Amino acid sequence: MENISADRQLPETSFELSHHNQDKVIISYGPKNGFLLRGEAFDKQLHLIESLNNVFTNGFTQQDEISVLASLPYIKRYYPDFICASNTYCNRNELTGLEYEQFSAGTYGYIYLIDTSEKNIQSIPLCEENLLNKQFVAGYTEEINEGVDYAIISKVDPRCIIGAIPSAFVAFALGINEKSFITNPAYKKTVNCEKIKETIGEKFFLLTRDRLRHPDLPLSEVYQRYLQAEERSNQQACLASSFQTRRSVIFFQSNQDEVPFFPETQKSLGL
User: Fold this and answer.
1) This protein's superkingdom (predicted)?
2) Which of 5, 32, 189, 251 is such that its CA lies 20 to 30 A from the CA of 147?
């Protein structure tokens, strides 16, 4: 993940402290707001829906973790089974964590919302105190700044996964709205719709897993149709923008010399 510059303020006491390990590295229960986001590409050996079901049933698997935390020798040495996730907070109207996890999910993936409020998930936050710990950053020579990243170091119970947001292509392939939130049947708490709205950044459509249907065509063909639909959408947007620009130019280009000066106008001006 791209580093977060120091001038971008994180929430005060952004994480729930669990303990310090033997090297005085902070271990947390996750963000103070009780939610994490994790993007995962779908399992290519499974279909889109089966891949989603697999996560809802069995939890997450380590993938090509792109967080800067995944590059730290300390974490790879002492917590080899870690996975990465992001805080859900919104900073200056930027959904930083969501944007990072969209990149992790890729074209064929989902972004999962994890409930950490039960304090049964341990993670290492990318916080200032950890970055000042020489043992924690030993062996890493690039600049690192405090950010929204968390390295989850304990097994995530699938019942803590609230649901998933599909990537734009996955939503297209499944024939659902791009702003859909698919709930996990294993999650037994009441779904916090306001929190999901904050996470996505706008209104969403709540869906249950059993409403999903496989695409009728092979995924490769669906993807070509998706690209064609995207191209048409972009062309329409360009045409609309061009039309609006022409209207603005026509409206503003006239000057006084080009406007007929009628006698009535002269009288009204006292000329």
Assistant:
1) Bacteria
2) 189
Residues 130 and 147 in one domain: yes
Domain total in the chain: 2
| pLDDT, tens only, 39-74 | 999 988 889 999 999 999 999 999 999 999 999 999
- Closest alpha carbon to 116 in 149, 157, 169: 157
The verdict on residue 31 lying in a domain is yes
The string of pLDDT tens digits covering residues 146-204 is 999 999 999 999 999 999 999 999 999 999 999 999 999 999 999 989 888 888 888 89
DSSP state of 201: S
Q: Which domain holds residue 189?
A: 15-213
> Which one, of 143, 145, 118, lies nearest residue 130 by Cα?
145
Residue 26: what are its φ and ψ, rounded to 5°? -70, 130
